[in-house]
Design goal:
alpha+beta; Alpha-D-Glucose-1,6-Bisphosphate, Chain A, domain 4; Glutaredoxin; Glutathione S-transferase Yfyf (Class Pi), Chain A, domain 2; 3 domains; seven-stranded antiparallel beta sheet; 43% helix; 22% strand; binds glutathione
């Protein structure tokens, strides 16, 4: 019996491609280089000889140019049903332990059911550290082979009318990503399954579920780096984070919750908008718009010179405010905010995702 306990992970995918194509994607270097690294990383080098007893060497490269090289030997190759190969990292950053990958392919209605088992880890931590990378890589494999196109695994649960859902949709559109929009109301039992606080939106990427708009947009940006929505410089990145946080903490509350939503879903005693709530919100909004106006100055983007995560969080909030009764008056004293809104409105990503609902008096 082995002295060391062995821990393993298993992942499955159903892929709309025949088993032969899936098998070949594991043993052809030019195909491996397109999927065999987590999203956000590239495969600049791969050498491979797909014969029993021969091996492969593959280098993954992160955005900061750190590289990770893995090597191994083919132990079983039974096209198109099974392949087994060893897996060993050769960098100091990763454990230099020889582990084993076993891929079993079975025909199914969609095409192929893939079952990948990576075994031989000496502790659960090491096993778990490999799980996100495999998840992400297999999602890329599915996208590469699935004729329905890219990002077939992304699903956004929420309501296109919600500002936060809209922000994520702008990010997805900026990156040209296909995704499934799953209509969910806040606090619906289905949404609570994905987002324990019941809010919208939540993103599903294969079996990875994520909530909080900022986290979702950052995840998308890491996975699909082009065009980036996170400023490159330290200060601009921090500035973007500042405005994302200010939008959630102050602006959304005053402009959407206490103003726009009062008109859209009136809660006053006579079924009308509650004017006391609106008037208190208006005073805050005027102050907040002055702060924002100052922050924009002559620019139309708030953190650096390119459209960023901060702009896509702010734009839906300001757009809703502008469309609400009295919104134009509130914005009258904030010409820089109006200019920034017009600039956001001119972007195809904003237009394609606009929920097109108007607040009524
Ligand atoms: N901090 C969350 C906020 C999400 C949020 O509040 N979404 C609104 C819709 S725009 C919602 O779910 N509201 C329901 C509620 O307040 O209970 C995020 O960044 O995603």
């Amino acid at each position: 019996m082995s002295q060391n306990p062995s821990f393993e992970l298993t992942l499955t995918r159903r892929i709309a491609a025949p088993p032969e194509r899936v098998f070949d994607a594991f043993v052809a270097g030019d195909q491996l280089s397109l999927w065999c690294a987590p999203r956000g990383m590239t495969v600049p080098k791969v050498a491979l000889d797909a014969r029993i007893g021969q091996g492969y060497r593959l280098t993954m490269e992160a955005r900061d140019h750190t590289t990770f090289t893995v090597t191994g030997e083919f132990q079983e190759l039974e096209r198109p049903t099974k392949l087994v190969y060893t897996w060993q990292w050769v960098d100091d950053a990763m454990p230099a332990l020889e582990t084993r990958v076993r891929v079993v392919l079975k025909p199914c209605d969609e095409g192929t059911e893939l079952r990948l088992t990576h075994s031989g880890f000496h502790d659960p931590g090491m096993r778990d550290a490999h799980l996100p990378g495999w998840n992400s890589s297999l999602n890329r494999l599915v996208e590469m082979l699935d004729p329905r196109g890219t990002a077939a695994n992304l699903a956004l649960s929420g309501d296109p009318r919600s500002t936060y859902t809209w922000s994520v949709r702008i990010a997805l559109a900026e990156k040209g990503l296909g995704y499934e929009m799953v209509q969910r109301a806040p606090h619906s039992p289905e949404q609570v399954q994905l987002h324990p606080f019941g809010r919208i939106p939540a993103l599903r990427d294969g079996d990875f579920i994520l909530f909080e708009t900022s986290a979702i947009v950052r995840y998308l940006d890491e996975c699909f780096p082009e065009p980036t929505l996170i400023p490159a410089s330290v200060r601009e990145r921090a500035r973007a984070e500042q405005w994302v946080s200010a939008a959630s903490s102050y602006l959304y509350d005053a402009m959407i919750r206490r103003y726009v939503l009062q008109y859209l879903f009136p809660r006053g005693t006579d079924g009308q908008a509650d004017l006391a709530v609106i008037s208190a919100a208006s005073a805050d909004i005027v102050r907040y718009l002055a702060i924002l106006d100052d922050a924009y100055g002559e620019q139309s983007t708030i953190a650096g010179e390119t459209f960023s995560i901060a702009d896509l969080v702010l734009a839906p909030i300001i757009d809703y405010l502008a469309l609400a009764p009295g919104g134009q008056e509130l914005l009258a004293g904030a010409p820089n905010v109006r200019r920034a809104l017009n600039s956001a409105r001119s972007r195809p990503s904003f237009q394609e995702t606009h929920p097109s609902i108007k607040a009524t008096a």
